[in-house]
Amino acid sequence: MRAWNSTLTAKREKPRRIAQDAPKGEGASILHQGVFRCSDLLKLASIAPHCMGCEEANTGQVVGCHPNSLAMGKGMGQKAHDLVCYLCHECHDILDGRAGTLDRFEKEVLYLRTFHLSMDWLFQAGHLKVVK
């Protein structure tokens, strides 16, 4: 697979067949493309300068947080793609719904905002590069 960054290892999980209901009630099977995995993106959380949510300095508490939406590959018993944002434990708990009172829309906005800031840092720091 040609990655958009040649310095990071990227792979997809093994494709698998999943059942899907056909329009006329007949059973069908489609090929699930697999989830994007990149352990190097997750490991970069340890050197992120700060939490992208509350901007608290990183003293080892910042982790890579997965999105929680179906559109990003999340499913029952399955993590979403490794398109992570870098958050401290408190902000991660808010994003995952373990703390705070944000509704689904507000959590999606929080993820998108912090994902954008995380990607901006990755490009500015030279961890991600566009290759042709």
Write a structural description.
The protein is of the alpha+beta class and 132 residues long. The protein has helices at 39-43, 89-96, 104-124; strands at residues 11-12, 16-21, 27-32, 36-37, 63-65, 85-87. It is globular, with a radius of gyration of 17 Å. The strands form three sheets. It has a two-stranded antiparallel sheet with strand order 1-4. A two-stranded antiparallel ribbon has the order 2-3. It is 26% helix and 17% strand. It has a domain at 38-124. The two termini are 14 Å apart.
Q: List SSEs in N-to-C order.
A: EEEEHEEHH
Report mean pLDDT, rounded to a whole number: 79
Structural class: alpha+beta
User: Helix fraction?
Assistant: 25-40%
Categorize the overall geometry.
globular
Percentage beta strand: 15-25%
Instruction: Output the number of helix runs.
Output: 3
Intertermini distance: 14 Å
Strand order of the largest sheet: 1-4
Radius of gyration, rounded? 17 Å
Give me the count of strands: 6
Major sheet, described briefly?
Answer: 2 strands, antiparallel
The low-confidence runs, each spanning 5 or more residues with pLDDT under 50, are: 24-32
